[in-house]
Specification:
The protein is α/β, with parallel strands linked by helices. It is built from 13 helices and six strands. Strands 1-6-5-2-3-4 form a six-stranded parallel β-sheet, with helices on both faces. Helix 10 runs parallel beside helix 11 and helix 10 runs parallel beside helix 13. The longest helix has 19 residues. The structure holds the ligand CN1CC(C(=O)N[C@@H](CCCCCC(O)(O)c2ccon2)c2nc(-c3ccccc3F)c[nH]2)C1, calcium ion and zinc ion. The ligand CN1CC(C(=O)N[C@@H](CCCCCC(O)(O)c2ccon2)c2nc(-c3ccccc3F)c[nH]2)C1 binds next to loops.
Length: 374
Amino acid sequence: MKNSRNLLRSENYNIGVQHPMKPLRLSYTNDLVCAYRLHEKMRVFCPPKATDHDLMEFHIPSYITFLKNVTPENSEQYSFDADRFNISEDCPIFRGLYDFCQIYAGASVAAALRLTSEDTDICINWSGGLHHAKHNEASGFCFDYVSQYNARSNNHFSRVFPRVLYIDIDIHHGDGVQEAFYETDRCMTVSFHKYKENGKYFPGTGGLGEIGIGLGKRYCLNVPLKDGMDDESYIALFKDVISDVKDRYQPNVVVLQSGADSLGKDKLGGFNLSIKAHGECVRFVKNWQIPLLVLGGGGYKIENVARCWAYETSILVDTEVPEALPKNAQFYNFFGPDYSLHPPLVRRIENLNTKADLQKLSQQVHERLRLLDG
Ligand SMILES: CN1CC(C(=O)N[C@@H](CCCCCC(O)(O)c2ccon2)c2nc(-c3ccccc3F)c[nH]2)C1
Ligand SMILES: [Ca+2]
Ligand SMILES: [Zn+2]
């Protein structure tokens, strides 16, 4: 029987044996963070669950009411709503679903609000960043997403931070967040992702042509990539694009979705990024010294997800950590055979992004960004 404290932690939920999303990865991350004693370099909070009201700030009430009432036992009675809200193999009903959503969403709401107080410059919520959720339906393992809540509705957060820059390095397109801000210039969304012209790679959106509409026109930027991106080309492209975005948009706060499925050897991914390269993107944004909210996201080789997010936690708290994983980590045995923070990257996927492709893409991105100057 889980004690009450356990139920307050999103890592203790199980979506399904066959399902690639394993909240256990959060336990592994927390284990490494604590074994490296990084928790002593920050304030750790156990924030309140998001309330129904919080969630209804962004999602339609009938969707939230559904999530709150449906269970694996009674899901038969809800089959109509289940279809309507895109419940599927990707987004199944599992035990504690609503608790799970309230916990991770509550952490993002609390983190965002803490950033508005002068005493905090960086907040981390590795359980957040579920960027496919829509205001009226679940999608891509994501049920709800509250960063929209913070920047869309006219509230304290959006008054303190009138220009929010959202950056998404998960290998999938951040379609839910893009959609939420598609018509506003209060949040600029930038997503780097694997993209197939035929729309065959989930979610199928995120082409260069999606640039926002109305007031949001030009405040949405997509960087579509092919399989096999490697460290050098990804870091160069990321810094080149993101520097230009920062200079032109001059954000007051940055929300970085640090999905770890863009790492090499990920089960759903297709890039060759090392943990160091992924972390370099986090370091680059951190060094701007603009208030920063770092969120998790995808990541399906869970030992590498934990290594990546523990490493990025060390970057965010300015603490060098030894390459050898701490032997006192509870899950130490799961990190074999190397037991290191930066395992050798063996399975390499051929990089289909040629130098010419990346040159052209960079040019197209800069052309779009030049239009930001109105
Ligand atoms: C009808 N077909 C199913 C749709 C589809 O291909 N869905 C993607 C969803 C991938 C979601 C990625 C989520 C994310 O990594 O971006 C993420 C998760 C949290 O924040 N971000 C997907 N589902 C699976 C999957 C789902 C259940 C069981 C096994 C699976 F392989 C793999 N890839 C089309
Ligand atoms: Ca992305
Ligand atoms: Zn992903």
